[in-house]
Amino acid sequence: MLGVIVPARNEEKNIANVITNLIECKIKKENIYVVNNQSSDRTAEIAEHMGVNIIFCDEIGYQASLKKGLNELKNKNYQKFLIIDGDNEI
């Protein structure tokens, strides 16, 4: 099973495109995890509205977001993972 981690901090302008691209690549919404890294904008709200999983990371930083996301996927028994930044397009 493939889980996708999307570390994101203040990506309200990009996050919908990233999630849409993942869905167009046949990734199921339940396998997409946006790791909201203390965003002060609507990043988490947009991701939640699109129906994907939101993980809140209290510690600021890319490494902290990755660690939080990887731990979550490990706890859910994912065997494979993919990391896509919150401002990338596929």
Task: State the secondary-structure class.
Answer: alpha/beta
Total beta-strand segments: 4
Strand order in the sheet with the most strands: 3-2-1-4
Q: What's the gyration radius in Å?
A: 12 Å
Largest sheet, if any? 4 strands, parallel
Mean pLDDT: 95
Question: Strand percentage, roughly?
Answer: 15-25%
Helix and strand pattern: EHEHEHE
Structure characterization notes:
- Helices cover 34% and strands 22% of the residues.
- With 90 residues, the protein is an alpha/beta fold.
- Helix 1 links the parallel strand 1 and strand 2.
- The longest helix is centred in the last third of the chain and has 14 residues, at 62-75.
Short summary:
By secondary structure, this protein is α/β, with parallel strands linked by helices. The chain is built from 3 helices and 4 strands; from the N terminus they run E-H-E-H-E-H-E.
Blueprint (SSEs and pairs):
Layout: E1 2-8, H1 15-24, E2 32-36, H2 43-49, E3 53-56, H3 62-75, E4 80-83
Parallel strand pairs: 1-2, 1-4, 2-3
Entry keywords:
alpha/beta, 90 residues, four-stranded parallel beta sheet
